[in-house]
Amino acid sequence: MNLKEHLRYIPGFPEEGVTFIDITTVLKDPILFHAAISELAKAVEDLEFDVIVGAESRGFIMGAPLAYALGKGFIPVRKKGKLPAETVSADYELEYGKNTLEIHTDSIKPGMKALIVDDLLATGGTAKANCELVEALGGVVSGLLFFIELDFLKGMKKLDGYDVRVVLTL
Questions:
Q1: Quick check: 62 and 117 in contact, CB under 8 A?
Q2: Which residues touch 2 (CB under 8 Å, ≥6 apart)?
Q3: Within 13 A of 132's CA, how many CA atoms are on the CB side?
Q4: Catalytic member of 93, 95, 135, 165
Q5: Which residue of the set 58, 102, 132, 149 is catalytic?
Q6: What distance separates the 2 farthest-apart alpha carbons in the chain?
């Protein structure tokens, strides 16, 4: 099944010069959504990890069902001020701005192996911030998994030294 042909492209969103890749066209179809999660699971079947970490919001959309399918726990990473307990934070840049991510300090134990999951690898800023959060708590990043990579933005460069896996490259 060619999942690429089911993506929707929206030029000029969220701002001029950016083309948004809309995965809702895959998510709304139960067969396509199941296929996407199955492809993500296949991509990491040889990787050892204890939990899946996903940043809001589309990291939740791909990471939580993958965690469920693989029998793993899911740890949410949220934008600044959204988590209720004590947190650590990491600042990052994305292709059209800056932001801060946070994770609860009790979510990762020292030595815990984490798989970071997101829908899209663009410039690598969000992914790198997720790695920094896991490592700040003493965790180990076993790998990073993306549904889509925008190869032309060279986000892999920021993730040099990590095991990065991708289902679709655009």
A1: yes
A2: none
A3: 15
A4: 95
A5: 58
A6: 43
Q: pLDDT tens digit string along 46-91?
A: 999 999 999 998 999 999 999 999 999 999 999 999 999 999 999 9
Distance of alpha carbon 90 from alpha carbon 72, whole angstroms: 24
All structural domains of the chain = 46-169 (3.40.50.2020)
CB of 103 within 8 A of CB of 133?
yes
* Annotated catalytic residue 8: no
Contacts of 63 (CB under 8 A, 6+ apart): 52, 53, 54, 74, 117, 118
Closest CA to 121 of 159, 87, 85: 159
Token reading at 119: 């829908």
Q: Is residue 15 among the annotated active site residues?
A: no
Q: What is the pTM of this model?
A: 0.94
Higher pLDDT, 33 or 16: 33
